[in-house]
Specification:
By secondary structure, the protein is α+β, with helices and mostly antiparallel strands. It has 15 helices and twelve strands. The strands form three sheets. The chain has a five-stranded antiparallel beta sheet, sandwiched between helices. Helix 11 packs across helix 13.
Length: about 475
C-alpha cells in the first residue's frame, strides 16, 4: 500500500470515519517494527482480536517481517488490503485492519466480524406485520453496532457524550455526514452539553432534557426498531442512543411522522396512502368526537340529523346523570382502566383490563349512570387514539380540553380551541424545523411522504426539513 507510512494510514482512516467514538486504534511499537490494529468496537470480536491477532503480533513480529501475515496470524480469513479506502470499507463490515511498517508498509484485512444480534422478537411498542423484526437492546454500544450493520457507510458518524453527574450515562450521537442538518446537529450537541441532570437512566430522560420548556407535543421521535431509526438517519435525522435504554431517539421530529409507519414503505403505494389517511382521520375522531356530540346535545342540535338526535334522547332518558357528566365519567374510567392494564404485571394486566372494561360497561348501563350511546362514543374515541401512539399523551389532555370547550360554548368554543391547537402546531418548531413540515411551510416534494405514500420516490431520499 502506497500512502506514505503507518501514521498517514492511521490518520486517513480516523479522519475518514470522522474519529467516531467507536473507532479503535491499537498501536504496537517494537524495535524496528511499528504495528497498528484498527477496528470498530462491538461489531468486531474483542476477545478474538486479543487472542488471535494482538498476541501473535506482540510475540513474533520483529524487524525481519516482510508481510507474511498468513503464517503469523491465527485467522481463517485473511485478505490483502491494497488501498486506504479499502481499509475503511473493511472496518465498516466488522473486519479489522492490521498494518505493519518495517522496510515498508504492509497491510491486511482480518475477518473478525461480530455484529450484535438478538433473537427474532418484535418490540411490543412498534408492531409490524411485514418487515424486519430486529429491535434495540439496553446496550448503547450494541445499538450503535446494530445501526452500523444496516448502514455500512463510511460517512456514518458516532459521537459520545456523558450525561448525568451521578450516573455518567453514555449518549451516542449517530448521524450521516452530508445528510444531517448541521444546525440540528449543533443544537443537539449544545443541549446535551448544557443539560443539567444528575440522573439519566433512560432515553426518556434525554427527551425531557432536550425538549423546550412547556412542550406539549413530542419534539423527538422514539423507536425500538433498528430499521426505522436507520431509515430516519438516512433521511437526514440525528439519532440519540442512550446506554441502558432500548428506545433510540431521532431529531428533529415533525407531525407527519406520527401518521407514518415503517410498514408503509413495504406496501403498495395506494394501500399505504389509504392507511395514512385512515390514521389521520382516526386521530381527529379520537380528539373531537366526544366534544362534537356534547356541543350538539347542549348547544347546536341542528348539526346532527333529527332522527339521530331523537334516538340519542330516547337512549338517555332514563340516565341519572347529564350527558356531559356521562362523557366525563366514562373518559376518566377508560383512562384509569388503561393505566391499570399498563402498570399491572403482564401476566395479569390484560385480564384485569378486560374484566374491568366489561364490569364498567355493563355495570354503568345497569345502574343508569351512562347510556349505550355514550359508551359507544367514548369507546370509539379512545380506541381510535391508539392508532397514532406518538400523540396519545397529548391526545388525552386535548380530549378533555375540547370537551369542556364544547360544553360551555358549543361548536364555537370547540372550533376556537381546535384553532388554537392548529396555530400552536404551525408555530411550533423542533430543533429549528417547522413542526408541520411539509404542510407549512408548503413543500410540494415533501407532500409525497405526508398523507401520500410513494415509496419508490421517497425511500432513502434526503428530506428537506426547512
Amino acid at each position: 500500500m502506497d500512502i506514505g507510512g503507518l501514521d498517514k494510514l492511521c490518520n486517513y482512516v480516523g479522519t475518514r470515519l470522522g474519529n467516531s467514538a467507536d473507532f479503535t486504534l491499537r498501536p504496537i511499537d517494537k524495535p524496528g517494527c511499528r504495528l497498528a490494529v484498527m477496528y470498530i468496537r462491538n461489531i468486531s470480536g474483542r476477545q478474538y482480536i486479543a487472542d488471535r491477532v494482538v498476541a501473535p503480533l506482540v510475540k513474533y513480529c520483529d524487524n525481519s517481517f516482510r508481510g507474511g501475515f498468513d503464517s503469523l496470524l491465527q485467522s481463517a480469513a485473511l485478505s490483502p488490503c491494497n488501498s486506504p479506502e479499502e481499509a475503511v470499507q473493511s472496518l465498516l463490515y466488522g473486519n479489522l485492519v492490521v498494518a505493519a511498517e518495517t522496510d515498508r508498509l504492509y497491510c491486511t484485512v482480518v475477518g473478525a466480524d461480530n455484529f450484535a444480534h438478538r433473537s427474532v422478537s418484535e418490540p411490543d411498542s412498534d408492531v409490524t406485520v411485514k418487515g424486519p423484526r430486529a429491535g434495540f437492546t439496553e446496550s448503547g454500544e450494541g445499538n450503535v453496532a446494530a445501526l452500523r450493520r444496516v448502514i455500512k457507510n463510511p460517512d456514518l458518524r458516532v459521537e459520545k457524550q456523558t450525561v448525568g453527574s451521578l450516573t455518567g450515562t453514555d449518549v451516542f450521537i449517530v448521524y450521516l455526514q452530508g445528510r444531517a442538518d448541521e444546525a440540528v446537529l449543533s443544537a443537539v450537541r449544545r443541549r446535551l452539553k448544557t443539560a443539567k441532570a444528575s440522573c439519566v437512566v433512560d432515553s426518556g430522560n434525554i427527551e425531557q432534557l432536550l425538549a423546550p420548556k412547556g412542550s406539549f407535543f413530542p419534539t423527538l421521535g422514539s423507536s425500538e426498531k433498528v430499521d426505522k431509526v436507520a431509515s430516519k438517519i438516512l433521511s437526514g435525522r440525528v439519532g440519540l442512543v442512550c446506554d441502558g435504554s432500548p428506545f433510540v431517539l431521532t431529531a428533529p421530529y415533525v407531525f407527519a411522522e406520527s401518521i407514518q409507519s415503517a410498514e408503509d414503505y413495504l406496501k403498495p403505494a395506494w394501500y399505504a396512502t389509504f392507511m395514512r389517511c385512515l390514521r389521520f382521520f382516526a386521530l381527529l375522531a379520537s380528539l373531537l368526537l366526544p366534544a362534537m356530540f356534547t356541543a350538539a346535545v347542549y348547544h347546536d342540535s341542528w348539526v346532527l340529523p333529527s332522527v339521530l338526535m331523537e334516538s340519542l334522547h330516547e337512549m338517555e332518558k332514563d340516565i341519572k346523570l347529564s350527558f356531559f357528566a356521562e362523557i366525563l365519567l366514562m373518559l376518566t374510567a377508560f383512562e384509569v382502566i388503561r393505566e391499570v392494564g399498563v402498570r399491572m404485571p403482564r401476566s395479569v394486566g390484560e385480564a384485569v383490563g378486560l374484566v374491568a372494561s366489561l364490569l364498567v360497561g355493563d355495570a354503568t348501563v345497569e345502574a343508569g349512570l351512562a347510556g349505550t350511546s355514550v359508551l359507544l362514543i367514548v369507546a370509539f374515541s379512545e380506541t381510535s387514539g391508539f392508532i397514532v401512539p406518538a400523540m396519545s399523551s397529548a391526545g388525552v389532555l386535548l380530549r378533555y380540553l375540547y370537551l369542556f370547550a364544547a360544553y360551555f360554548a358549543g361548536f364555537n368554543g370547540l372550533l376556537f380551541a381546535f384553532g388554537l391547537t392548529v396555530i400552536a402546531l404551525l408555530k411550533k418548531k423542533s430543533f429549528g424545523v417547522g413542526y408541520m413540515t411539509p404542510l407549512y411551510p408548503l413543500n410540494p416534494r415533501g407532500m409525497e411522504d405526508f398523507l401520500l405514500a410513494i415509496p419508490k420516490k421517497t425511500l432513502g431520499r434526503r428530506e428537506k426539513l426547512k
